[in-house]
Predict the 3D structure of the following.
Amino acid sequence: MASYIGTATSRVDGRAKVTGEAKYAGEFNLPGLVYGQVVGSTIAKGRISLVDTSEAMRVRGVIDILTHQHRPEMADSDDAYKDDTAPEKGSPYRPLYDDRILFCGQPVAVVLAEDWETARFAASLVRVEYQREAHVTDLHAQRGEAFAVEKPEKPRGNAEKAFAAADVRHEAEYFIPTEHHNPMELFGSTAMWEDDKLTVYDKTQGVQNVQRYLCGVFDLKPDAVRVLSPYMGGGFGAALRPQYQVVLAVLAARAVQRPVRVVLTREQMYALGYRPATIERLALGARSGGTLDAIMHEAIAVTSQFEEFSRNDTGWADLLYTSPNTKFVHKLARLDVPTSSDMRAPGAATGVYALECAMDELAIALKIDPVQLRLQCYSDRDQNTGLPYSSKQLRECYGQGSAAFGWEKRNPEPRSMRDDHELVGWGMATGVWEALQMPAAVRIVLTANGHAEVATAASDIGTGTYTIMAQVAADMLGLPIDNISVKLGDSSLPQSPLEGGSWIAASVCNAIATTAHAVRKELLRLAKRMKDSPLAGAAADDVTLADGKIVSTKDPGQAASIASVMQHGKVERIEREESNTFTEDKLHARNAHSAVFAEVKVDEELGVIRVTRVVNAVAAGRILNLKTARSQIMGSVVWGIGMALHEETLYDHHFGRVMNANIAEYHVPVNADVHDIEVIFVDEPDETINPLGIKGLGEIGIVGVAAAIANAVYHATGKRVRDLPITLDKVIQFE
Amino acid sequence: MAQPGTAEPLRQTDVLPEKIQITLTVNGTRTGLAVAPWTTLLDALRDRLDLTGTKKGCDHGQCGACTVLVDGRRINSCLTLAVMKDGAEVTTVEGLASNGTLHPLQQAFIDHDAFQCGYCTSGQICSAAGLIAEGKARTADEIRELMSGNICRCGAYPNIVAAIQQAMERS
């Protein structure tokens, strides 16, 4: 019997995706379906004084138009609108609730029609008048008003004093603009009421989060609401919180008593959450030999006027580098925009970008190789808590990454390497992310024909959850992978956390392990009842499931087939549901790490930057599937390329509106932008983090990539660009 | 707060364009349908023929998720009105496999893990089929360039190039 864990297994949902059979939230063409088109506000702040729907209502095929003055009832307390990932502080946005406009693009009406074209046309006829109020959408204009939020990391020593006394100092400000996730699938929901039961197909990273949210907003009992998301066309954090179209679809379905689909346009998706624009200030003080004495990191990030969203931008230095003196400050600035949100490696993608560029600048000031500086400052403990790591093979990442990249051939002098008309630059950076686990339950139904269904409410947002769950279940149950079917994305299935934070793999796979153990115990109980049972004296921990059999680990000759055990026991199916077991490990810091090496080539005359090579060496515990894991890191590197060179949401601050709200003018990497990407998984056994030693891979791959590229651009051109994205106009005037 | 459905019904004027009868041969099957002139080929496929394998990612010809083959050429179906293609042969991702056997590109996409979420995949595969038929791309760089109208936000590009190379070698 093959072992599946750790192999390069092809996606079990691959066939559904390459044939077009996989159905996404906006693709359930239910009988009698009504199409909804959202009308968005054209101002950023103020009140609606009039919504005139009369002309739109005259269009043949229009059924109804919902507004804040004309809609079914919905909850009126903040608590009802707080989903699992809502910021602790603030009042969540309530779609179509009242006349207040909180951000540009906020829905002010939903036109419901017999077909989508009619809804779209009629939406253009809805006339809205506003009482405008002065708005602000520019972080730089509001930085003076920013306020500090509480942080877990306490200051250590006296960073200001140590910085002032340091032999070598580097101090600089870095900037990351607002970025939008832009998953390929448009946000959409299809809602249907049957009697008093609500079924919703939704684009979400957490069906049970949406279920709980809808129960709150519409005052429903949990068993009256079922949310489904069997396939999801990309999330990257955008679909962690329930988005407003799901509320509108449910409202509309209730209003017209028919199934309703509401799909947003690409432009409307720029009025959802986003990676907040962030100003990062770094101050590093070092001894001339190349050790750190002081680290100060302050971040100022965007949030909305009505909620306080913040993630940990600062503090990552304490996980990577030893320094007796540190100080971390996180501030928020309120703007008249939607609340910022999680986007791939929230906090780390931005904070570590700044930290790792600053480390590069410090290495140059110290005249020390950037890898060498990081090794000299390397920390075997979380500096803030003092805890050792459950595992940390970051040294190996530096070693294997630099070897694969050929780092030793680097001439440290900027503008010293060239390829024909292009300047060549090599840069590197470190990545770090959390390795978390959340409570999760898995149900296994083993049938006498040797098939098993494995189910939990988690979503597979493209990460490969279907596949790794099938692999782990196949190994734990001793069955071929083709005999395993995985059910996901249904709120009625056993409890699962949101698909985010890189914690799904560890959470659900360890839950499979505990549930499979319960199945095995039941099989052993049945096996012992067999006449002349070969396993009569076996204890629960002395048997394993392999090759369709229950086998004694002490004497592999003692075995019985699962089919015969179930036949003798007269059971058709064994069903068990268990949760992952974990206790809060207070003795270890738990993180995934990486070392990223990037090569850029910069056209000396035109300033065009190409990322020609990236090596990302990752230490993230046990790798469950070499194929999908490599893809995940590769995709993250592509995200890092976008962050470094392309992505920027541009606001017209006069109107408080996004100017490039489309996927042509908001630049994301295309095929021609991406060249060689090598992914290395550094062996990292971890026996303490969780039973299967899994750390998760969703975020770690992007962290450090933008910094490695920015550092490479400096090395190529001698020009340090600190505000992302590094567009050609910023490098064209070489110094 | 006013209750829905209680608004006084307004006289609905006939401002909508009349529907036009067209015939499309979709995945080998001749299909007649009446569509409004403003209906795109993409919406006709997804909403009228329930062929949801063809995806809508932007509706502006910017992302390529809606790529289908019309008379053998790859086009963005969101930028094409259905009435413009009366009489045309349309191949969507649902029409690539034959008798349960995957098209070499579909198999190559699975082998090389050339997708994650799967939402751009139909467009990538149809675009790649068009690319191979065009016979222009010979090198990896040419494939990258000529596939750059199909965005993959999951970032599977190197795997997409590898999958197309595999299918090209075998065709």
